[in-house]
């Protein structure tokens, strides 16, 4: 029996035990007027936000081809070349803004906004760097980065303690080897932890979340993808290093004597273009991961 109402005398009633007269429900057994069902208490905006974040952590069906190492590299480079000119203009403009006191504090927020717009497949431009909304979230943006730094330090502290004890048990000759090995392992572990918060700054800027909400949502979105993202970034760094090496080798043949002032303008322009392209690739990777893992359809600008 599905309950449709409650009578004070007869108890729970179903639809066959209720008569509606003039829009008022009555119990057919005793004729008593039924109290209207209590309306659920509406959630506050904060409670609704946390409920959405909790729902998003249940399960996420993610397309494996988009989140493979090759998929991340292909998607990121595609974003880079689709926005090649605008990205280079944005990066050059942000470099100029970085030299202006008080204006420069909003540049990291602006670049984060650019990465988010790339992920949402929106056009980007120099105006994103100086957008007033960047300065409205300035305190929360830097607070978020402080929380990430403190979180990594808190994780590193218990890892460092047994290392400190171990150093006291080995000879001086082995201390350098132990320090290098343990430092490398600790760095990898902290990178793995930090990758969980990789998207938090974009989430804060794009979705208007608080720092704690952004950290939680980022950790949920990155769940199960950290290893893939790590190897994709490592491979992209290697490919970028090789590209810079080939560029330097090519400049020696295409622009002979550039080290000694000959063809200096061409060499400077080519070098500047390569640096801005590498930075654009970084923003594209950031944006691709955000666009693939989040549900941002471009309606949060």
How does this model look, in words?
With 301 residues, the chain is mainly α. It has one domain (65-293). It is 63% helix and 5% strand. It has 11 helices and 4 strands; from the N terminus they run ββββααααααααααα. It has helices at residues 45-56, 69-82, 84-97, 107-119, 132-136, 138-167, 172-195, 200-207, 211-221, 226-254, 264-293; strands at 5-7, 11-13, 18-21, 24-27. It has a two-stranded antiparallel ribbon. Strands 3-4 form a two-stranded antiparallel sheet. The longest helix has 30 residues, at 138-167. The two termini are 49 Å apart. Residues 57-64 have low confidence and may be disordered.
Give a topology summary:
Layout: E1 5-7, E2 11-13, E3 18-21, E4 24-27, H1 45-56, H2 69-82, H3 84-97, H4 107-119, H5 132-136, H6 138-167, H7 172-195, H8 200-207, H9 211-221, H10 226-254, H11 264-293
Antiparallel strand pairs: 1-2, 3-4
Helix pairs in contact: 2-10, 2-11, 3-11, 4-8, 4-11, 6-7, 6-8, 6-9, 8-9, 10-11
Compact description:
This protein has 301 residues and is mainly alpha-helical.
Could you say how many structural domains there are in total? Answer: 1
Number of strands: 4
Q: Give the amount of beta strand, in percent.
A: under 5%
Q: Give start-end ranges of low-pLDDT stretches.
A: 57-64
| Global Rg | 28 Å
Structural class: mainly alpha
Largest sheet, described in full? 2 strands, antiparallel
**Continuous helix count:** 11
Helix % is: 55-70%
Strand order, sheet with most strands: 1-2
Distance between the termini: 49 Å
Tertiary shape:
extended
Order of helices and strands: EEEEHHHHHHHHHHH
Overall residue-averaged pLDDT value = 80
